Amino acid sequence: MNLRWVCVFCGARDGVGGKFAPAVRELAQSMVAQGTGLVYGGASVGLMGLLANTVLAAGGECIGVITRDLVDREIAHRELTRLEITDTLAERKSRMMALSEAFIALPGGAGTLDELSEVWTAAQLGLHARPIGILNVRGYFDRLLEFLDHALDQGFLDAESRALLTVAPQPRELLDALAKRWTSTGGI
Questions:
Q1: pLDDT tens digits, residue range 149-171?
Q2: Which among 80, 90, 103, 120 has most CB atoms closer than 10 A?
Q3: Residues 91, 66 contacting (CB under 8 angstroms)
Q4: Which domain holds residue 166?
Q5: Closest CA to 31 of 64, 65, 8, 15
Q6: pLDDT band at residue 188, thresholds of 50, 70 and 90?
Q7: Which pairing describes strands 132-135 and 62-67: parallel, antiparallel, or unpaired?
Q8: Which CATH number characterizes residue 58's domain?
Q9: Are 149 and 143 in contact (CB under 8 A)?
């Protein structure tokens, strides 16, 4: 069973030296090849813009969800399959979650960590059973993963919660693992 819609959290910046761009393009192309649509933060800039542009150029579908204040700053991507506008960040995250069957975190900053934390916490609380992935491009998330292992060792995180995060260094590997987890939950 292929995933129909995957929400990808990533930066509104490009990162240093364009080193994350190849993995972003590969993820976008792999999603389209599998018939998986993109749900994301709706911006036209940074890794978000690159991801959406690559999905669209490959003939895929792309739903952006963005807050009204970011639209007003003129960073909304205007050529998406669908652009939804919310009033608050909380509504934005809730809507992205509702539209998606799985979640992937790519390199990004505080917003990416916030979005990842929210879907992960919701899974820990049993509010959803959708798979969550981290694409550890060029070791970007190594220190975060070390911290999570430390939290586990110190008793602030249990092994079941830690296991909710699927980590892979390559886009196709991560998509395959998430699809397998989606199928094992019966697609709920």
A1: 999 999 999 999 999 999 999 99
A2: 103
A3: no
A4: 5-184
A5: 8
A6: low
A7: unpaired
A8: 3.40.50.450
A9: no
Nearest one of 51, 72, 70 to 62, comparing CA atoms:
51
Express each pLDDT in 74-116 by its tens digit: 799 999 999 999 999 999 999 999 999 999 999 999 999 999 9
For the chain, what is the domain count?
1
Inter-CA distances, 185 with 44, 131, 144, 178, 179, Å: 34, 9, 26, 11, 10
The number of helices, as runs of H, and strands, as runs of E, in the chain is 8, 7
The separation between the first and the last C-alpha atoms of the chain, rounded to the nearest angstrom, is 12
* Cβ atoms < 10 Å from Cβ of 87: 10
Nearest to 59 by CA among 39, 26, 79, 32: 32
pTM here? 0.95
As a residue count, the chain comes to 188
Q: Which regions of the chain does DSSP assign to beta strands (E)?
A: 5-9, 37-40, 62-67, 82-86, 102-105, 132-135, 165-168
Distance CA 27, CA 48 (A): 12
Among candidate residues 104, 55, 58, the one with its CA nearest the CA of residue 82: 55
